[in-house]
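Translate sequence into structure tokens.
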Amino acid sequence: MSWISNGLRTTAAAALLAGLLPGCAVPDLQPFADSTALIHRAVLATDTDIPAWLEDAGQHEQAAAFAQHLAVRTQAMNAVLGYSESLAHITAAGQSGAQSAGAVADSLNGLLGAVKAAPLAGGAVSSLATAYDAIAQVRAASAFADAVQQADPAIQGIARILQEDLKSQESLLPQLVPLLKLSVVERDRSGHLAGLESYRLALERRRRSIEKQLAATPGDPALIRESQDVALLIEQTRDRYEPVLAERREIEAQVRRQVELMRRTRQALIEWAAVHAGLAGAVRAGLRPNTAVLTSMAVQLLSAGK
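Result follows.
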């Protein structure tokens, strides 16, 4: 199933404001929180195997850096989930006045603090410094919808930071594949696999050379005999070398899955921010926000991460 285009995303946001779904005076925001929870689970699934592979390859500093990066990304998404759940709890309690605005301000303050403490996407977090000014405006709001509207610029900034962080990892992971593939050989403390790999690669090079020579002088008896000998030697290494190749191919496949998971998570965060941008309008109209697209994307994320 393909992911929605920018045009469809715009349509989804418009539908949100138009209020296609009937609701009550304080709409149910639990679907929004539930979708956020699915995105949260997807973020927790990113990079999980990479640190172990880097450790196996002897890249201890890189492994520690990846583990730390995953920890701070998780910290940020924990706060995003907490904020979304707080909105659902506020509406579930039927709060819509000044008291609810205070609760939104408290949640936003916690979210900003968590994201600012997580060094994601380089210096992008510094752009949130002015977002703290919005907390007072959120707290001063007289209604829940007004509070959410005042909070939205900060939420959009946080969503962009998370998107940029995931995009940077999308670019970095493929560059690590050569290091990760080393982990298969490095785990063999006897050093036999390293020697076997060199031997097998030398045989493969010789086979290609013979093939070129045979193309130029077909039927040469000496080349034919040597070709047969090399083929036999390659076959004799198959039982030990083929599992190494299979594991390396699995590493490449896993990296591709991780990159795809990050890409889809980033797209889901874009949609999440679009839905949040329309929450105030939906609440004012007493309509449930249209989270159908967001929910669909979030469910697909879990499948992509398996």
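Note: The two ends are 16 Å apart (CA to CA).
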